[in-house]
Specification:
By secondary structure, the protein is an alpha+beta fold. It is built from 3 helices and 11 strands. The two termini are about 35 Å apart.
Length: about 190
């Protein structure tokens, strides 16, 4: 059952946090985009709030739009799931215990989690071959570059939580509306 969704800032990096319950486990999914490359990181944190050990396994499916992707397949050798069509998309996991099956599916065995403890699985979605950047940079290197990027941006702390949150959200939202050329697409504001 759903608990919360919110922005949080880890080392100044904007991260979407989604918290929910799956049976007896508390799941927190964290989504962030590194400062370069067509990548989306998805960190799935599973916490055991019970008083007994729980066996855990994560299942994900890559189910992209059939309008854009007409070929979807699990690559058992690479342990990835790929979609091809007007663009290319790839789902991969940084953990070692990854299995793919069927056409869309990926699963990761996290094993037994003791009471009060947590485990994490890290997934990466890439588009247009952007996963090649992972040959140059590891996840930790991309994270450092991303923290440097966001730390170099203006920061405001007024002591007013509402004003601070409004500034933070507007700072990351404006980036999505400004092109590399510096031109601005007013998006939803243009048509109201």
């Amino acid at each position: 059952s759903f608990k919360s969704v919110r922005w949080k800032y880890i080392e100044n990096v904007p991260v979407v946090s989604l918290v929910w319950m799956a049976d007896e486990c508390e799941i927190e999914e964290e989504f962030f985009v590194p400062s370069e490359g067509g990548l989306l990181f998805r960190r799935v944190n599973i916490r055991n709030p019970t008083d007994r050990a729980l066996d855990t396994k994560i299942h994900l499916a890559l189910a992209p739009s059939f309008v854009l992707f007409d070929e979807i397949l699990a690559d058992e050798k690479e342990r990835t799931v790929r979609a091809h069509g007007f663009a290319d998309m790839k789902l991969q996991c940084l953990e070692k215990s990854v299995q793919t099956s069927g056409r869309y599916d990926m699963s990761v065995v996290l094993g037994q989690i003791k009471p009060g403890e947590a485990r994490r699985a890290r997934f990466i979605y890439s588009i247009g071959g952007a996963e090649k950047i992972l040959n140059k940079w590891r996840e930790s290197g991309l994270w450092r570059k991303t923290t440097r990027y966001w730390s170099s941006r203006n920061q405001i702390s007024t002591g007013n939580d509402v004003l601070d949150q409004l500034y933070s959200v507007s700072k990351i939202g404006l980036r999505a509306m400004t092109g590399r050329s510096g031109k601005r697409d007013s998006g939803i504001w243009m048509y109201n």
